[in-house]
Structures are given as C-alpha cells and as structure tokens.
Amino acid sequence: EHTRLTFALKGFNDTETVALVGGGHSFGKTHGACPLGFGSLPNEEPANAYQGECGTGIASDVYQSGFEGPWTTNPIHFDNEYFMNLVNFDWVQETSTGGKTQWGVVGQGGPRAPTPFQDENSTIVSTQQIMMLTTDVAFLADSSFRRIVQKFAFDVESFSTAFENTWYKLTTQ
Description:
Layout (H helix, E strand, L loop, with lengths): L1 H7 L5 H13 L2 E2 L38 E2 L10 H8 L2 E5 L5 E5 L6 E3 L12 E3 L1 E2 L1 H8 L1 H12 L1 H17 L1
Antiparallel strand pairs: 1-2, 3-4, 4-7, 5-6
GO biological process, one term: cellular response to hydrogen peroxide
Family: Belongs to the peroxidase family. Ascorbate peroxidase subfamily.
Keywords: Heme, Hydrogen peroxide, Iron, Metal-binding, Oxidoreductase, Peroxidase
C-alpha cells in the first residue's frame, strides 16, 4: 500500500507504477558490497564522498544503497526478465553484503549475472545471483499489482508500451 500511495502522489496508477519500477529494475544493479559503511559524507570530503570504507572505495569496494546485486541476468538489456523472475521464482529474505535486507531466489540454482567488476588477470567470468528488493516482492502480495506483474511477464509488448507512455508522463509532467 505504501508503494501505491507514494506513486499516486505523483499521479501514477497501478499499471504505471509497476511499469516504472520494472523498467528501472530492468537495467543495472544495486551497489552496496562494502559491509563497513558508506564512508565520508559530501560535506566532509566532497571529492571522495560515499566511497565506502572497504579497499579502494571504488568498483566492487563501493557502498551506495547497501543493497547488492542485479535484478536480471542481463542488466544492460531492457526487456521483461525482471517480471519473469518475480513470477517464476520463490523469494526468501537474506542479508546483503552491505547489511541490508533483500530477497534471493530460494535454493542454490538461481539465475546469475556477470559481476560488473572483473579481475583483469582472470580468465574466469565471476557471477552473482539475481536479487529483489522488498518493494519488488511486495508487488506479488497485492492482487492488483500481481496481475500487472504477471501480464508484463508474459507480454513484453504490453510492458514496453506501458513503460514508454509512463516514462513520457514522468519526464514531461
């Protein structure tokens, strides 16, 4: 209900809400692998703010949200895999390497994505499991949101059209 109310304040209905969140979570990943915290604040060290207290403070040592992982196996490709993952897997609460509660696929065989920071001296591509945030999994607990997630999971054109229209609304209002 919190998600619905938050997006409604900006004039978005349920379909638009799911399209925006899913579209945003189709790309990229969360960043928060550093378990030691976010580091210096901008008013303390403007040039080095939020680099984290681990290693170099950049790349895999960065701390941003504290959540860690991609939503999809190909986080540089816009598609409806985010929705397919939500409906096709069971999700269990886990703690991220950054100390935040997030959700992982039940069992050991969940989908994996290449990690964005590879060891340049290695010939092995490292991977990490996909994840979801509580806001993502909450879509499944609400019957209206769940219907939209299921529709988008099996109808990429419907999702693409909804996202395109909602993105236009978001950026022009």
